[in-house]
Amino acid sequence: MPEGERFLLRQLAVFPSGFTLEAATAASGQQEGEAASGLSNLVSKSLVTFEGTGAAPRWRLLETVRVYSLEKLGTGADYHVTMRRCVAFFASFFQPFSNESSLHAAIEHLGPFRREIDNLRATLNWAFSPGGDGTLGAKLAAVASDFWIALGLVSESGEWAQKALPYLERTEGSRSEMVLQCALGFALIYTEGMSERGKDVLIRALSIARALDDRDYLQRVTCALWLFCARSMELDDALFYARE
Predict the structure, then answer these.
(1) Which terminus of the chain is more exposed, N or C, with fewer CB under 10 A?
(2) How is residue 19 annotated by DSSP?
(3) Separation between Cα atoms, residue 128 and residue 125, nearest integer Å
(4) pTM as predicted
């Protein structure tokens, strides 16, 4: 097998749930035509299988091939370069969930995003691992925050936010922090009940939303604080947030 095909096979092994041509191109760092040609040759050798449809093409490595290729890729510099490319790709791919103007359309067409859920998890797991890049991971976690909510995975949204927040020390008060604090606050309401920790997180998110004059998150966090106070029978505070 030519070295170019072996190289591509190693890069594709980082995707646990299959991949699109765009993802393969991003992970390998190749031009799209080069990646497409290599992918076609790998399919002809029965190392990669075609999935999906002509309108939504998708490929997957046979599991035994993937395990072997992942071992060959190793955990050194090439692996980390590949995973950084994956972070950049998925940050762009899930960007519609991070913009108020495109959020509704993204939720209405969840299919392509849902298919990447295990790849997103794998990428975030790498980012927050000892050898990963937590700063990049925090940005991706913020971008994908509403994706988890759209799937009803509020708790998972909060888990990624909790892992991401420690990496934002240099960008405190940023939009990313606001998004992650909000996600964590909502998750804590549903996992820990009306804890002081949850309230503190939401108040922090509200202060950032006010500083940034972000109308969307002002509404979201105010609603969350109203819910928190109403459930805690802090009725004066609940009335205040209701009026807000």
Answers:
(1) N
(2) B
(3) 5
(4) 0.93
